[in-house]
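Ticket #4471: structure export looks truncated?
Reporter: QA, pipeline team
Priority: medium

Steps to reproduce: submit the single chain below to the structure queue and open the exported record.
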Amino acid sequence: MINLVKNAFLRRFLNFRLKMIARQERAYNFSEELKKVRKILVILPSDQEYSQPIQEFVQKLGAKFSKARVSTFVNSTLRKSDLSWMGLPNEQYLKIIRDESFDLVVDANTEQDQICTYLCALSGAPMRLNVSSGMYDSIYNLHFRSSSAKNINEKLDNVIAYLTFLAKNKQE
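Actual output as written to the record:
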């Protein structure tokens, strides 16, 4: 019963908090921003972090941005000491993420996850990309839409293809 109430409260809090996070008014030239990418955070789906498509995507992303350091995050690996009483990343953990100064955050979840979206929103990264559309699209500022019928491998390949396209344009 207590977990039910806690989860309901958490959902409402996150819905409110994510809606209140102001949309960024700044316009980005993503081709130019890609030149500056030195740190990337990839948020992996909790149930697929070791799957072949996800691992290949992280490797391809590392190859595409050879001068960048690629870090990964999996929601299910958070320790109790990293969480607040509501089950959200605590201020100390969020400070660590912000202090990393990620240039690009890629949320590779196949369905939007509130906690991962919250982490992405508070990361401070100028470019925030999500693979799946959903209720919190306003948090992300880079969207590459693909058919919902496509599997995760095809969606991740689309992301790499679009980033490659943008990277080509940055050199012209």
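Status: closed, not a bug. The export was complete when the record was re-opened. Leaving a note from the reviewer for reference: The chain has a mean pLDDT of 86.
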